[in-house]
Amino acid sequence: MFGPIFSKPLSSKNNKTGSWRMGKRPKFLQTNCIACRMCILICPEGCIEGEDKNTYHCDYDYCKGCGNCVEICPRQDIVMIEDK
Amino acid sequence: MKRFLEGSQAVANSVALCKPGVIAAYPITPQTHIPEELSKLVAEGLLNSEFVNVESEHSAASVVLGSTACGVRSYTATSSQGLLLMGEVLFNIAGLRLPVVLTCANRAVSAPINIWNDQQDSISLRDSGWAQFYVENIQEAVDFHIIAYRLAEDRNIMLPVMVCMDGYILTHGVEVVDMPEQKDVDRFLPAYKPLYKLDIENPLTLGFLADTDYYMETRFAIQKTHQEILDLLPKITHDFRNVFGRDYGEGLIETYRTTDAERVIVAMGSVCGTIKEVVDQLRRKGKKVGLLKVITYRPFPIDKIYEALKNVPKVAVLDRALSLGADAPLYTEIRAIFFGKKRSPKLIRSFIAGLGGRDITLDSIKEIFKKLSLKTTEEEFIDLKPELLKDKV
Amino acid sequence: MKEIRIHARAGQGAITTATILGYAYFLKGFYPYAFPHFGAARMGAPMNAFLRVDTKPIRLRSQIYEPDYVLIVDPTLLRGFNCLVGLKDDGIAIINEGEGIDKSKLNFKRKLYFVPAAKIALETIGKPLANTALLGAFIAVSRDLDIEVLIKSLEIRFKGEILEKNILSAKKGFEFVKERF
């Protein structure tokens, strides 16, 4: 008998962690972005995407609202706003 | 072919016949000769295997965890502190259901530091999920490594197996061994075909977080699988007999002159040979004595032991390890078998002997049989030196 | 069953000696069990190697307390410790003859064979490794085995020049006993 031993890739997509946000969410202003990609690296959910300057955004189905991207952005181009 | 081999050398050659793809080990007395011989076989090109030199036992266990997870048959060996340092990884190997085979060259655990034989090291890891065999002689050590791989890699089992052999007595002992032929091992032990493996072409996650919703089922599954081992092992030893001609019964226990016995010692490992000698000596004098050897300690073959001992009036359990602060491990479990049962020995007594290499002689065993005739039921240490015991430092 | 106890110091090759002798018995169809017991597990520390021989596989795993034979590789061990303890009344001791042994203190009805094994080894091997000369002497004394089977056993363990020297050493030990006793 086995039990849960391993999981296949993408299975964590079933866990929509966006519901964990507690009142605030990041807003990507897309005005002063220099495409340094620091927000992608720091995001614990890996839910930020973007290529060129001012194209970065996140998937709110998974964003937990931790605010790490806001803290790390060297151009203050991401801000926390009320999550409505 | 019959050869005159040192235990470690014999085991290393037996492991080589199983063709592990990865071997990782860190030297520790009295295990050292095993990886030494294996590294020699690899260096001489006689064994096509990756021998990974590591910086600790923790790393050795981690390497074989990783290599087995990648679908490669793997092997490691250790003793004493080394086994304990591996401990954390050993629980992981079992939890990940990886069929690693490990030799524990049984040695006492520090402090005080002691390189000689007892079984405290592997007994301390009895709850890790590994199956454990305790062998009596070098031939059994050789054979049970081959059986271990066959059992571990069975697709219904997928659990690691530890083969425990007494340090020095078996690892450094030299005796006549019938070494299996490669073609027979190949017939008995097919190439390892993993149920799942880490593969970049077909990715999966091993060792994910299992929260309260999942963890308990993984443990339940291992518990159930251990029950399945009790059913499967007799079939494997049966196959083994057909291929190699050596009979280990069901591979769980061995009874020696117990049928009409009034006094029986239960023990594990090389001391069983010495007990057999005493049993024969006392039988010649008309004393009805016998031995029950526990080969498979995990899973614990409760039903088999019950059947073997239920009509025996007096049972002595000989432990070569302790559970400090409580009754000795094997003794506790033997007693537990009979709680609430209709038939049961009238007396089950705990004897501790041979800790830290204290020699277990014919007289030590005779003393146990003698003390089993007494009224007392207390735990007893055999060959203890009271003159060394002080109440004040 | 025959029991042989070897007294030596760690590093003097006592385990090898027990194994070579065991192999010789093995070649004759016996079931030997050779094993060591270390004290301090450091070079120079007193240690024992044991050999049990029988016509069926050995089960007894304890050390040897009442040997049929005692081989003493290093005579300095006799200073402070009775290497002959437990030797059977009809037992035999083969001792590497060294300086400073007070033979008068080594009592006995038991047969003691003093063999200048270290001297033989210096002449043949060039190092004071008394083991193979003692084994040659053992073959002469015990009569269980012949010198040819010992040589076969040495051939398993050694090669080339070292083998030749050890065979010579064994033969000299053998001849010494044959001539003297």
Outline the structure in words.
Chain A is elongated, with a radius of gyration of 15 Å. Chain A is of the alpha+beta class. Chain A has a domain at 25-82: Alpha-Beta Plaits (2-Layer Sandwich), CATH 3.30.70.20. Chain A contains 2 helices and 5 strands, in the order ββαββαβ. The longest helix of chain A has 5 residues, at 38-42. In chain A, strand 3 (48-49) and strand 4 form a beta hairpin. Chain B is an alpha/beta fold and 393 residues long. Chain B folds into 2 domains: 2-244, Rossmann fold (3-Layer(aba) Sandwich), CATH 3.40.50; 253-388, Rossmann fold. Chain B has a 7-stranded mixed beta sheet with strand order 3-2-4-5-7-6-13, with helices on both faces. In chain B, strand 15, helix 12 and strand 16 form a beta-alpha-beta unit. In chain B, helix 1 crosses helix 2 (33-43), helix 3 runs parallel beside helix 4 and helix 7 (182-188) crosses helix 8 (215-244). The longest helix of chain B is centred in the middle third of the chain and has 30 residues, at 215-244. The radius of gyration of chain B is 21 Å and the shape is globular. Chain C is of the alpha/beta class. Chain C has one domain (2-180): 3-Layer(aba) Sandwich (Pyruvate-ferredoxin Oxidoreductase, domain 3). Chain C contains 5 helices and 6 strands, in the order βαβββββαααα. Chain C has helices spanning 14-27, 117-124, 131-142, 147-157, 160-180, and strands spanning 2-9, 31-38, 46-54, 69-72, 92-96, 111-115. The longest helix of chain C is centred in the last third of the chain and has 21 residues, at 160-180. Chains in contact: A-B, B-C.
